[in-house]
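[Discussion] Sanity-checking designs against the backbone

I'm trying to build intuition for which residues belong where. Below is a C-alpha cell string of 453 positions. I'd appreciate it if someone posts a full sequence so I can compare it with mine line by line.
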C-alpha cells in the first residue's frame, strides 16, 4: 500500500449523498444492461481499434496522426471533434443540462521515438506491440465508451467530454492536460500569459476527469506522485586520445556522478526513487569527448524529499566534475556542467471525502471489485495538484512489458472494466428517466416540459 498522508485542510464535506442507492438503480436499468451487452458483442471491434491505433506511431511531440485518425472515428459517432493548441483531441457530447462536463481522457503518446518498428499484431488471445496497453488500451476504452453510448442512444444529464490528450509520457511533461486546465494554473509571477491561438477554443469546463491508462480494473490512482526530470550536460575541451591526453574527459565525470548518485540512500518511507534513464556522448573510441549528457528522473510522494534529492544531484555533479578535472594538464581545461529541469510533475491527492472517490468505491462495491488506492504519476497529477477532482483508472484486461518493444495486452475479462467505467460515467453524469432521454433524442430543447412526452 503506498504512502498516504491525511491532510485535513484539503478535505471537504461530500458534495453529494452517498451514491449507494443510485448505483443499485443504475445496475437494474435495462439501458445499462444494453450498454454492458454492447461491450461483450463488440470486443472484436474494440480490439481491432486498439491494434489499428497502436500501429500509428505516436512518438513524444508526434501525436497528431493518431489524433486525426481517432477524431475521424469520433465524428462517425456524431460527435464534434477538434484539436486544441496543445494537440489534444476533444470530442464533446451534450447532456440534458448544460454546465461543466464529466471528462474521460486517454493519452495518445508513447515513449517510443519516431522510426521504432511497431509490428503490432494479434497472437492467439494476446495483442502485441509497443504501446498496445500503454495506452492503446486506454484509447480503445475511450472510443468504446463513446461508441456504446451512441449505439445504445443513451442520453446523460450532464455533458461529457472525451479527450485523447498529448504529452503524458516522459518529456511531454503532461502538457496536454496542463493545457486543458490552463484556466486554473497560476501564471509564473511577472510573466505575461501567452495570447490565445486563433483556433484555440476557450478551455472546456470540467467537473471531474477520469484518465484511462493501461490495463487492469482494480486500481484507483488518486494520489499523484511528484517527479522532477533533469538533463545533465558535462563539457570539456575534447581532443585526441593520445596527443591531448590529460584533457579532462566528460564521460569520466558522468561515470563518477552516476555511480555516486546510485550510492545515495533513498528514503523508503516516503518512497523516493532515482533513475538515470539515458546517457549519450562521445565521437569515437580514439577521441576525448567534448560533451556527455544524461537524463535523471526522481520521484517521491513527498516534495521535501524531492527538494533534498535535487540538492544532492547538484552537489554530486560539481564534485564529479572536480574529481575528473583534477588531473587536467592545465587549469583552463576543467570541465563545466549544466543541469536543466526538463520536467516537473506536481504531487497532490484526492481527499478521502471526495465525491469522485465515493462514486468509484460505490461502483466497485456493486461489481465486487476489491480495489486498491495507488499513487502514481499520471495525467491526473495536474487537476489533483490544483485541488480538483480527478483520478486514473485502468482500461481492463491484463498486460505487461510497458515501455518495451515486447509489450503485450490480454483483453480477457475486459468487460468488467467497461462495466466499471460505464457505471461511473452514469453515476457522475446522471442517467435521466427513459422518457426524459427520449424527449431529447426527439429534438426537444433541454428543459422543455410541454408536448414532449
Ligand atoms: Zn500511459
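Best answer:
Here's mine. Compare freely.
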Amino acid at each position: 500500500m503506498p504512502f498516504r498522508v491525511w491532510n485535513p485542510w484539503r478535505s471537504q464535506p461530500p458534495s453529494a449523498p452517498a451514491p449507494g442507492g443510485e448505483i443499485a438503480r443504475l445496475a437494474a436499468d435495462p439501458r445499462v444492461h444494453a450498454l454492458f451487452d454492447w461491450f461483450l458483442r463488440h470486443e472484436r471491434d474494440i480490439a481491432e481499434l486498439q491494434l489499428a491505433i497502436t500501429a500509428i506511431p505516436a512518438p513524444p511531440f508526434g501525436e497528431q496522426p493518431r489524433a486525426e485518425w481517432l477524431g475521424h472515428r469520433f465524428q462517425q459517432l456524431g460527435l464534434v471533434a477538434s484539436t486544441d493548441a496543445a494537440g489534444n483531441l476533444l470530442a464533446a457530447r451534450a447532456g440534458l443540462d448544460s454546465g461543466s462536463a464529466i471528462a474521460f481522457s486517454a493519452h495518445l503518446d508513447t515513449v517510443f521515438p519516431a522510426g521504432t518498428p511497431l509490428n503490432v499484431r494479434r497472437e492467439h488471445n494476446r495483442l502485441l506491440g509497443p504501446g498496445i496497453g500503454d495506452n492503446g488500451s486506454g484509447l480503445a476504452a475511450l472510443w468504446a465508451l463513446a461508441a456504446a453510448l451512441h449505439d445504445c442512444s443513451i442520453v446523460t444529464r450532464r455533458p461529457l467530454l472525451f479527450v485523447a490528450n498529448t504529452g503524458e509520457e516522459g518529456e511531454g511533461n503532461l502538457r496536454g492536460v496542463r493545457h486543458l486546465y490552463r484556466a486554473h494554473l497560476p501564471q509564473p509571477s511577472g510573466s505575461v500569459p501567452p495570447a490565445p491561438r486563433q483556433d484555440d477554443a476557450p478551455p472546456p469546463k470540467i467537473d471531474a476527469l477520469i484518465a484511462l491508462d493501461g490495463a487492469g480494473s482494480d486500481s484507483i490512482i488518486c494520489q499523484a506522485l511528484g517527479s522532477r526530470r533533469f538533463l545533465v550536460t558535462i563539457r570539456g575541451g575534447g581532443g585526441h586520445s593520445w596527443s591531448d591526453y590529460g584533457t579532462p574527459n566528460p564521460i569520466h565525470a558522468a561515470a563518477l556522478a552516476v555511480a555516486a548518485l546510485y550510492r545515495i540512500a533513498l528514503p523508503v518511507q516516503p518512497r523516493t526513487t532515482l533513475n538515470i534513464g539515458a546517457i549519450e556522448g562521445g565521437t569515437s573510441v580514439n577521441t576525448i569527448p567534448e560533451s556527455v549528457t544524461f537524463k535523471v528522473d526522481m520521484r517521491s510522494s513527498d516534495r521535501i524529499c524531492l527538494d533534498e534529492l535535487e540538492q544532492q544531484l547538484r552537489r554530486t555533479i560539481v564534485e564529479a566534475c572536480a574529481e575528473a578535472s583534477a588531473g587536467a594538464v592545465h587549469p583552463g581545461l576543467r570541465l563545466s556542467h549544466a543541469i536543466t529541469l526538463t520536467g516537473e510533475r506536481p504531487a497532490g491527492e484526492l481527499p478521502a471525502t471526495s465525491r469522485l472517490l465515493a462514486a468509484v468505491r460505490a461502483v466497485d462495491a456493486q461489481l465486487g471489485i476489491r480495489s486498491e488506492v495507488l499513487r502514481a504519476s499520471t495525467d491526473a497529477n495536474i487537476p489533483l495538484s490544483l485541488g480538483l477532482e480527478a483520478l486514473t483508472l485502468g482500461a481492463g484486461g491484463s498486460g505487461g512489458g510497458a515501455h518495451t518493444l515486447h509489450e503485450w495486452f490480454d483483453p480477457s475479462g475486459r468487460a468488467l472494466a467497461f462495466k466499471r467505467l460505464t457505471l461511473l460515467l452514469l453515476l457522475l453524469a446522471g442517467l435521466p428517466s427513459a422518457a426524459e432521454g427520449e424527449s431529447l433524442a426527439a429534438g426537444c430543447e433541454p428543459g422543455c416540459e410541454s408536448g414532449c412526452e
